[in-house]
Structure formats: C-alpha cells, structure tokens
Amino acid sequence: MTVVTLLHPGAMGAAVGRQAVQAGATVRWVAAGRGAATRKRAVEAGLQEHAELATALDGAEVVLSICPPEFAEEVARATGGYTGTYVEANAIAPARMKHIAALLPEAQVVDGGIIGDPPFRRGTTRLYLSGDAGFVAELFDGSALEVITLPGGVGQASAMKMAYASYQKASRVLAALAHALADRHGVGEYLRHEADLLHSRPLADVEEFPRVAAKAWRWMPEMHEVSDALRAAGLPGELAIGAASALQRWASAKGRDDLGVVDVLAMLAQR
Question: By the 8 A CB rule, do 79 and 52 touch?
Fold first, then answer.
C-alpha cells in the first residue's frame, strides 16, 4: 500500500487525498497548527492524522503539496531532506516550479497542476503532471480524478495551469468589472441582455485569433477609453491597459489576411 503525505489539506487537497484513499493508498496529514475545519475535512476524506510533519513524512513514498501558492516554497523547505517523490501541485509559474525543484535536490520532484473543482465525481477535475510522473498517476487509478501526463520535464504542468488560469480567472474579473461599470451608469440590465445574446467561447475560438489581430489597431485605443471609464467610476483600469499592451503587439497585423493562428500567437511573444 502506497503511503502519501498530504501537506495542508484544504478543500482541494482533502478532496484529492480522498481520491487517493479510495484508490487504495494510505494518506497522512499534519494536524499541527491546523484548525477544526481542516480536521473535519481530513476525517471525512479518510486521511490519517499525524501530530507533526516529521512523523507524517517517515516512510512516506509520496508527498503531495496542495496549498495556497504563496506558501509553496515554505512548504517545500519544511520537508527538509525528503528523498521520496514530491509532487508540487500548486498554481505557480514554471520558473518558480523549477526553483522549488532545486530546493529538493534529494527528492524526485514531479510538476503538477490541478484544473477543475475539488474531485468528487468523474469528469470534473484534471491533474496534469510532468516530469517522471508515472508512479504518481498510478495513485489515482480508477478514481474520480483524471490524471494527464504531459511530455517534457518539470515546468510543463505548471505552464498548463498558468495558461488556463490566465483566461479562466481573469475573464471572470473582467466580467465583474464590466457589470460594475454598467451598474455605476445605470445600464446594468442592458449589459445583462447583451450577455445573454453572446455565443462566443473565446478560449475555444482559436481560429478567430487572426481576425482579432487584424482589428488590434482599432481595439487598442478603445481599451484605453475603457480604462479611463473604469477609473472615472472608481474601478481598477489596469486590466484594460494590459489588454491594450497585448493588442499593441498585433499592430503590424492591420489589414493583413495572410496570417494564421501560429503567426499571430508568435507575434504576442515579440517585443
């Protein structure tokens, strides 16, 4: 039976731990410094309580780090000279992932990124892995957590998570800002009507990118106007300025119909 130490079982961590338990692993958690809500989640997930990290790590073949990203280095350092498989499954940038891997020279570090809700049923959650991840994938065989192993080494799974989060998180903030601006001007119900008429799925509409790039010269100044309107309403306008900066990189696409998706994505990486 595989022994897994789960660091900081929040809602996502406890749910992932539950899936490993249901797949046959023994999953430990550390009670020191944790509150009643964490203990309740751990008990419900079938996790084995340990008072201190040292005892939880003793004999553990796998460590799963699933915590708020700002604590990722602190958690890695706390494991000291751990020599088993360390799965860094937090929402962090690829460069930071590699830095954390360097903090654990004696461990087999696996890069991980979780997309979706806490897993309770099939089809809701994916765990992307990169690096030497085969053993980790086996932990969740037959569980509700779908494991996808990416080609390449440490950093690939983090890149996948960051790419997804850059849209999934920011798009919701943009939507909230749009409604806040409309409500400040008394046109909220009309914006909601327009929202109901939308059928686009921007993350999936990849073939539209060349047409968007061709319009960038016109959209860029509009984003500056949006930023001004947001600021005048007491709202943050930085996201609109960020969009304008991205559109600036497509300035040379004006009037062109010979560019493909690969071309316009490459333009975004050119300063």
Answer: no
- The reply to whether 154 and 206 lie within a common domain is no
Give me the half-sphere count of Cα atoms (radius 13 Å) on the Cβ side of residue 32: 9
CA 88 – CA 97 distance, rounded (Å):
8
Profile the chain (271 residues) by mean pLDDT over runs of 10 residues: 72 93 92 86 92 91 93 91 94 96 95 95 95 88 95 95 96 96 97 94 94 96 97 97 97 94 96 76
Q: Domain containing 31 — which CATH number?
A: 3.40.50.720
Domain that includes residue 248, residue range: 199-268
Dist CA 152 CA 159 (whole Å): 11
Instruction: Judge whether 122 and 145 are in contact, CB under 8 Å.
Output: no
What amino acid occupies position 54? A
Contacts of 137 (CB under 8 A, 6+ apart): 129, 147, 149
Q: Rounded to whole angstroms, how far apart are CA atoms 103 and 80? A: 9
Q: Which helix (H) or strand (E) holds 201?
A: none
